[in-house]
Every structure is written in C-alpha cells, then in structure tokens.
Amino acid sequence: MERRPLGKTGVEVSVLGFGAAPLGQEYGALDEVEGIQAVRHAIERGIDFFDTAPYYGRTQSEERLGRALTGRRDEVFLATKCCRYGKRDFDFSAERVARSIDESLARLRTEYVDLFQVHDVEFGDHRQIVAETLPALRAVQASGKARFIGITGLPVHMLRLLAEEFPVDTVLSYTHYDLLVRDLDDVLAPLARETGVGLINASALHMGVLTDAGPPPWHPAPAEVLEVGRAISQLCRERGRSVVAVALRFSLDHPDVATTLVGMQTVTEVDQNLAVLATASDPALLAEIDALVAPVLNRTWHEGRPANAPPVS
Ligand code: NAD
Q: Which domains does the chain have, with CATH numbers?
C-alpha cells in the first residue's frame, strides 16, 4: 500500500481511504454484517484511513464502524466530525463540540480519535468557527481525545480562507477533485504546498455519479453534469474500462493529496478499488473524457449560508 504524509502531522496514511458514509446507509440499504466485513477486509489489505461522522446515518455509521473496529483500533487512523447532526441540524458552539467528542468516542468504542473535524463549514458563521469552534477543537486535542484537528466542506474558497486564518492540521474537500470538478487543484493544492496542511480529497466518484449504477436520487449536481457523468460511464464501457477505475485513478494521481476517500460498502468494492492502485492512467481515454467534460467542467452546486457562497468569477 502506497502511503503519503498527512501534511505536517508526522503521520503517513494510505493513499486510498475508506469513506464510511455508506455504513450509515446514505447510499441505500446496507446489511451491517456486509459493511463490517468490508471494513475488516480493507484493514487487512492495508487501508488505514477511516472517515466517519455523527451525521452519516444519524450516528449509525459511527456505531457500525465502532463495532467493526473492535480489536483493530490500533491499526487505523480514525477520523470523525462534529457540528453537523442532521440535514438542517447544525451546532458550531464550543459546548456542543465538547459534548460531541464524548458521544463519538462512546459510539466508536475508543478513547481518542486521530482526527476531529468541523463538518461542513459552509453551514456555519465564519467568525464563530474561527473564534469559538476551532478553539474548542484545539481544547479537545489538548485533552488527548483527538490527535489532530481539521475542517471539511464543499466550497474550496471558504476552506482556504478558514485554514489561512486558523491553521488546522487537515482540510477535507469533497467533489472538488475528480473527472468532473477540479478546482481543488487551483485553490487548495497551493495552500497545501504553501502551509503543509494535510489535504484529503473525498468523493472521488463524485458521490456515485462516476459509477455504472449512477448517483443516488438525492444527488445535488445539476442535471447537465449528471448527464455528462452518464456519458463518461458509457464511453468507459465502450473502451472496455470501468468508470470507477478510471475516475479513481485520476484522483489518486494528484500529488498534493494525502489520501483519497471512497465510500465503500462491500468486500468486492474494496478489492476493485485497491486493484486501481496497481494501474496507470490512460492519456488517450482521459483526453476523450476531457472533451465530454469541457462544457460542464467545474460546474457544481452550492450549499450553506449565502454569506459563504463562492465569489462570482
Ligand atoms: P463516493 O464518491 O466515494 O461514492 C460512493 C458510492 O460509490 C457508493 O455508492 C459506493 O457504493 C460506490 N462505490 C465505491 N466503490 C465502488 C466500486 N468499486 N464499484 C461501484 N461502486 C462503488 O462518495 P462518498 O462516499 O460520499 O465520499 C467518500 C467519503 O468521503 C464519504 O464516505 C465520507 O467519509 C467522506 N466525505 C466527507 C464529506 C464532508 O466531510 N463534508 C463530504 C463527502 C464525503
């Protein structure tokens, strides 16, 4: 397993990370036994970065991951989050952060997490996050309940501004570096190079768009982007390639990203995604994909407070 340094933390993590949102059945029904087998198989095959949150399955992902990690805790780098608890249920207060870590530790059946992150910063007030939320996470770190702290979210510009104002150990960005949207490369990769913050790229499959099964019904991408996603899948099929393998290879190739997170539900998906590590990208196919993507490149959606919306370019 190739491993890369997670910024300046002094820790190396597997280049392929296990996203545990599907364990909370965010991508449809998932039998607990099957999900736990996927986690344990991933550990055996060398994946050591695991990312979860109280929000995924409204605590179910953490509960299941905690059971899956029984006896294996020391073999993984475990990341969870705070401040988001439902689709519209957020609390960025210091008091909630302090309670949240204890709740997560109980569900995860551990004494500490390796990484504690503010979940979806775009739903918070920028000033509160800097003045209250992140200092509360540092206090959790000082207590020994978390080794490192970070921020996560959708708008890359806000992640960058926050990380510049309040130096964190990691920044997790999702759906902003894959075949369809690539502006992590313009905004967060330079930050990682300048400051040494650990960069985590989540949702390399654009939350299921870049799979043969296609996205879940709740997917927020504009219709024309979903259409291009279908065209990419079709093209890959015609070329005898798996769209998942092509998409994952593309994201893994970013040199400034420490780990690329993919949500995995089954042992088969774990094995398929691990197999991609031994492959190389196909420049001719990527050129064909680029031509399909060009009309919608970097077209995304917005979430969170209007004040946190990206600047109009
Ligand atoms: P993803 O792009 O990784 O896609 C997940 C979907 O792809 C699931 O349906 C999964 O079953 C499917 N899949 C995975 N491997 C496959 C394979 N080999 N063949 C066919 N289908 C396959 O989306 P995601 O799970 O949302 O993102 C990855 C992880 O990143 C999450 O689980 C979560 O841990 C993290 N994340 C964090 C945030 C945040 O903090 N704000 C946001 C998004 C994602």
A: 3-208+244-280 (3.20.20.100)
